Amino acid sequence: MRDASLLQLMWLASPALPIGGFAYSECLEAAVDTGKVATEQDAAHWLRDQLHLSLARADLAVIAQAVPAWRSNDHARIAALNAWVLQTRESSELRAQTEQMGRSLLEWLRNHTTASSAQIAVLAALQPTYPLAFALAASSTAAPLRECLLSYAFGWAENMVQAAIKSVPLGQSAGQRILSQLSAEIPAAIDHALKLGTDARQAFSPMLAILSAQHEIQYSRLFRS
User: Fold this and answer.
1) For residue 103, what are the contacts with CB-CB under 8 A and spacing of at least 6?
2) Which of 75, 82, 87, 133 is the least buried, fewest Cβ under 10 Å from its Cβ?
3) Of the listed ranges 47-51, 85-89, 176-180, 200-204, the one predicted with least confidence
4) CA-to-CA dists, residue 180 to 11, 53, 165, angstroms
5) How far apart are CA 42 and CA 22, in angstroms?
6) Nearest to 164 by CA among 24, 51, 59, 13
7) How far apart are CA 105 and CA 20, in angstroms?
8) 31-55: average pLDDT
9) For the whole model, what pTM was predicted?
10) Which residues of 17-55 are buried (b: 16+ CB within 10 A; e: fewer)?
């Protein structure tokens, strides 16, 4: 069972998962366009901050609560967490991203045996967001909660490094150095997310919100956010 769970989490973290994560830079492209990120060091610093100040406090904290909710069939809790994600996306781009990736992962789940038909129906009845869809996919494994969060965080890191490589731009070796730094930071981010209760979650990243709004009207773009 452990081998199967590990393989499933690796699958969920893979950039090859057909959910469209490669199409988003989560405002990094706008940061490059406005001169806030111009070098490898800038990109590494930006992504470390985003990991700790945004991902750990919001999406990772949501998944830490959503996986147990899926495993215990706490549908009210699942609906509340999904609503929180939708309500705290601060721009139309960021909301569209979580909705599109949530729908795509829902379709992926329909074609696999990782979730029951009843669970899929619960997710489909919502306006599914990516963190809640991921939590369902991860909860269907026998993996410990911490490993589920590691999978999500590393998948995010890989996508963001690829966005940095394309937008700064950087070479592949620079991308691997940044990924190494992010990998070293991920355990601490997960520790923080696991400690957060419902009232302690937050989505307060004003610079990301401003850059996202600017990206919506940016003249030339590679990414959808």
Assistant:
1) 128
2) 87
3) 200-204
4) 20, 19, 14
5) 21
6) 24
7) 9
8) 97
9) 0.96
10) bebbbbebbbbbbbbbbeeebeebebbbebbbebbbbbb
* Residue 4 covered by a domain: no
Closest CA to 66 of 115, 18, 3, 16: 115
Q: What is the pLDDT of residue 2?
A: 84
Q: How many domains does the chain have?
A: 1
* Residue 1 pLDDT: 59
Residue 16 lies in a domain: no
Q: Report the helix count and the strand count for the chain, using DSSP H and E.
A: 11, 0
Residue 175 lies in a domain: yes
In a domain, 145, yes or no: yes
Q: Rounded distance, CA 205 to CA 189, Å?
A: 16
> Distance (Å, rounded) from C-alpha 78 to C-alpha 66?
6
> Among residues 162, 173, 136, which one has the least CA distance to residue 26?
162
pLDDT band at 93 (very low <50, low <70, confident <90, very high): very high
What digits encode the pLDDT tens for the residues 132-161?
999 999 998 989 999 999 999 999 999 999
Residue type, 135: A
CATH number, domain with residue 63 = 1.10.4190.10
Range of the domain at 192: 38-215
Q: Which two tokens stand for residue 99?
A: 């909705």
